[in-house]
Amino acid sequence: MIRESLDHKIQRQLSGSNYRYLTRGWVLQELALSPRTVHFPKGQLLWQCRHCFTSEDGTFWSSSLMSLANGSYTAGSFNFSSLRSSRNLWWQWIESYSTRDLTFETDVGPAIAGLVSFFQERTNLTPVLGLWLETLAVDLHWGLQYRKQSRPPPLEPRESEFPSWSWLSVLPQQDVDFSVPGQYMTSSASLHINFWEVKWANLAFTSSLMKSQLIVSSFVRNATINVPTPATWTAASAYRVSVLGEPSWRGVCKLQYLFPEETSQSVTLLQLSQENTGRLIIDRFLVLLPQRENRRHFYRIGTGDVQTPLSEATIDGEERTVHLDLHFSELDRQTLLLV
Fold it and tell me: Which pairs with CB-CB distance under 8 Å and at least 24 residues apart come from 214-217?
């Protein structure tokens, strides 16, 4: 008897386009946290657990088939032995969650509550509205990549019960890819958390958010973003960032919102971290815009980075293992309230 290989066939059967179950937001935590799942696609039943996928007729078995949730929920992926492996799993979940549909936008918090609780129990990290306090200097660098033919919404941050610095404030979204933050272990944080507070009406994530506050201090620069013309804008557009009087600034940023085109927009840049890759020094920052009602409160509207070849990063008396005052300086440290 000759049988067709089920590997690609099962992948097609269980892809999001053919299996509407996988497009739903509430389903992610159901799949990710269930030790065992039985699927009922066309043809035969399929068994999924954290060890393998197997078919009802016994002709297919795989320990490496791409997970239905987002990538690989074999036993090895549930590895909480290090901060790096734990964060990899968390951001895989969020990357998958960001592509899913919700009937009610108000479910964006409740539909992720189980994953937050599970992750907190396994890691002892402190949840801060979809981010984690212990790695906040890196987690804040999340972003959205708009797909072909899709454009960011207008500049005014959308109405949401969540603050602009949390990815919960921009979901659900269509036609976007979620950009996950970098690895915690490779970065030197510049950001200091001065104060934070999150108050829920009742249980976290499943009740209304009553109050959120985040006060941080870091190196701050005033800058200008050059907005491309409509004819040159694409889903991959990166906005150029320049600092007055400093031609060496070669920064770029990605924005969640769209400025009026063919303009130059004043923004504030808040450094998050600096990374030495061995070839480059990368300064990562948030792009902020002051609130109209209170110019001392800032919306997070995007992220960016400025890169310097290591050969150009030598500063007299400085060791390359510590923070270098290349594009942000300790003298520029300020305290800001993010909303």
Answer: 214/128, 214/163, 214/165, 214/337, 214/338, 215/335, 215/336, 215/337, 215/338, 216/191, 216/192, 216/270, 216/335, 216/336, 216/338, 217/191, 217/192, 217/333, 217/334, 217/335, 217/336
